[in-house]
Amino acid sequence: MELTPLRYFVVIAAAGHMTRAARILRVSQPALSAAVKKLEADLGTDLLHRTPRGVELTEPGRVFLTHAQDIVRRADTARQDVRELVGLQTGVIRLGGGATATTYLLPPAVSAFRRQHPGLRFYVREAGSAAIAQAVSTGELDLGIVTLPAAPSNAAHANTPSTAPRRPPSPARRTPKAEGLVLTPLVQDDLRLITPPGHRLAGRRAFRWADVAGEPFVGFEAGTAVRDVIDSASTAAGVTLSVVMELRSIESIKQMVAAGIGVGLVSRFALPTGQGLVCKDGPLSRSLALARSASRMPSPAAAAFQAILARSLATFA
């Protein structure tokens, strides 16, 4: 049953007169009569009595009117909800990322986006890159920020080295598609050494892996993407780190280092400009990318946020 005849019938019932209803709806009276006849044919009964004063509802007409009003009301509500969603007035954007992304990269972009679209809400999950990639692949999250190469556990890895030299990411470039994901490079992140106050390396601008051999080391959890970058680089330099503590929170690592527990490596985004020691034995860096599902079109809100995030992260390039 089409929606337009239902709308016509609701107006006719309220007006009580075909000519008056035609004037309200701005349609011809023959077109209005034809719509009512089609409804009556579909239902197999008369809906209106024609009287000298206009029209009156039959008993089936009164029953049908209640349902027609409900259907029209629901359709109007659905149309308004969709328009608000497409117009970025309402909705939820579900994001995910590791500690660096959720603590330092997402807040400026979310703030800028909400200033433009205050009716939208955000759900943010902090987890490792593999878990975020899996959640994006299955549709639990709309977008995720992951370390490359990153993919769900059952997907092939993208062929982007995690220790690539820094270069400005190209928004148009795409990494190879992992199963279920499209990965768009966002920004290059350097890891920098932080030391307790008064440490023998404090005040330097760079370090070598040999400088931290045997040093108590405060690290990220084993198995995380950033820990893999650190372990791979130290092992390649012939150094086995003496890890005395494992944490997920960057701020917790910074506080433990400040308390003298040991040295640590954190993202450059977690430090004021110029702070932290860079690695002289070679770049200690990783590529961060935006992951979205390859099988689902992003919602208008998620697509708009992706553009805002790319502009926000361009300032870190």
Brief description of this entry?
The chain is of the alpha/beta class and 317 residues long. It has helices at residues 3-15, 18-25, 29-43, 59-86, 99-116, 129-138, 225-236, 250-258, 300-314, and strands at 48-51, 54-57, 92-97, 121-126, 143-147, 181-194, 206-207, 216-220, 242-247, 263-267, 278-279, 285-293. Helix 1 packs across helix 3 and helix 5 packs across helix 9 (300-314).
Question: Could you explain how this protein is built, in words?
Answer:
The chain has 317 residues and is of the alpha/beta class. It folds into 3 domains: 3-85, Arc Repressor Mutant, subunit A; 92-162 and 171-187 and 287-314, D-Maltodextrin-Binding Protein, domain 2 (3-Layer(aba) Sandwich), CATH 3.40.190; 189-285, Periplasmic binding protein-like II (D-Maltodextrin-Binding Protein, domain 2), CATH 3.40.190. It has helices spanning 3-15, 18-25, 29-43, 59-86, 99-116, 129-138, 225-236, 250-258, 300-314, and strands spanning 48-51, 54-57, 92-97, 121-126, 143-147, 181-194, 206-207, 216-220, 242-247, 263-267, 278-279, 285-293. Strands 4-3-5-12-6-10-8-9 form an 8-stranded mixed β-sheet, with helices on both faces. Helix 5 links the parallel strand 3 (92-97) and strand 4 (121-126). Helix 1 (3-15) packs across helix 3 (29-43) and helix 1 (3-15) crosses helix 4 (59-86). 35% of the residues are buried. Mean pLDDT is 84; it is low at 153-177.
